[in-house]
Amino acid sequence: MDWDDARIFLAVYRGGTLRAAASLLHIDQATVGRRLRALEASLDARLFLHTPRGYVPTRAGELALPAAEAMERAADQLERLTQGTDERVSGTVRVTTSETIARSFMIPAIQRVHTAHPDLRVVLSTSTQLSNMTRREADIAVRNVRPDNPDLISRRLGRLDVGLYASKRYLKDHGIPQRGTALEGHSVIIYQRALFASRSEALCGEPYGNARVALEVNSGFMMLETAMRGIGIAELSSYVADPVPQLVRVWPDCSELYDLWLVMHGDLHRTARVRAVADAIVDVFEALPEKAATARPKKG
């Protein structure tokens, strides 16, 4: 099995279908199927069973997984080490973060990069899920969780806050909730539990056990939009909610702080194109008012 074959195998293993594997590899589905059949023929082994639920690895497929992942790690390390010496500010940099952070902070940073380095292309992905940076799913991530992987380096961009927000119409109809009542008599909007199973059953420290969960969403934009429409009370970052005239901050003195981290792989952080994007992100945060971000680090 060579590395090209290993890439096909890993994509099918992780995606579970030929279509998902093709999407991961950016090739067509027929090519994935043809190359998988050729790989199985060359190994004289069946690696997957095709079932109604998708492609399920056989015993041989399970045994092949560690070796294929070792090849992937070696290929990724080779790419990172060689790119780490590249001083050209051109090429592609992959950035991942959440939708709301992208709108408020990443897009202004990308505008700076585009002005200064027109030959540099940024691929921006937005998701609530954490990308695997060791597999080159992203070169830069902006997260509210500091990674503990020793291969990654992180820099704190600033400290932001979240509060409780509701629309003016909602508060006119339902009134301000009383503290200590677990939001009794009110409706709340929360993130889908499947996405954030570890989150506490509280919003800004106030339990919501007595509230009606009106809606569960999977993105910050949907949280903002539904709160604006008066569906319920939502926990939102102040940088997103404060500029919206339809929203009112419930209990203005109640907030929770969280740190935002810039994360890069240790092998890539000195690459010129990655450094250019990282510096632009840091510049955007350094320009924020003190209220929006505190203890901002200097570039380095």
Structure characteristics:
300 residues, alpha/beta, Arc Repressor Mutant, subunit A, D-Maltodextrin-Binding Protein, domain 2, 9-stranded mixed β-sheet, two-stranded antiparallel ribbon, disordered C terminus
How would you describe the overall organization of this protein?
By secondary structure, this protein is α/β, with parallel strands linked by helices. It has three domains: 3-84, Arc Repressor Mutant, subunit A; 91-158 and 258-292, Periplasmic binding protein-like II (D-Maltodextrin-Binding Protein, domain 2); 159-256, Periplasmic binding protein-like II (D-Maltodextrin-Binding Protein, domain 2, 3-Layer(aba) Sandwich), CATH 3.40.190. It has nine helices and 13 strands. The protein has helices spanning 3-15, 18-25, 29-43, 59-83, 99-116, 168-174, 220-228, 238-241, 272-286; strands at 48-51, 54-57, 91-97, 120-126, 140-143, 152-167, 187-191, 202-203, 206-207, 212-217, 233-237, 247-250, 256-265. Strands 3, 4, 5, 6, 7, 10, 11, 12 and 13 form a nine-stranded mixed beta sheet that branches. It has a two-stranded antiparallel ribbon with strand order 1-2. α5 (99-116) links the parallel β3 and β4 (120-126). α1 (3-15) crosses α2. It starts with a helix and ends in a 14-residue tail after the last helix. The relative contact order is 0.15.
Topology:
Elements lengths: L2 H13 L2 H8 L3 H15 L4 E4 L2 E4 L1 H25 L7 E7 L1 H18 L3 E7 L13 E4 L8 E16 H7 L12 E5 L10 E2 L2 E2 L4 E6 L2 H9 L4 E5 H4 L5 E4 L5 E10 L6 H15 L14
Parallel strand pairs: 3-4, 3-5, 7-10, 7-11
Antiparallel strand pairs: 1-2, 5-13, 6-11, 6-12, 6-13, 8-9
Helix pairs in contact: 1-2, 1-3, 1-4, 2-3, 5-9
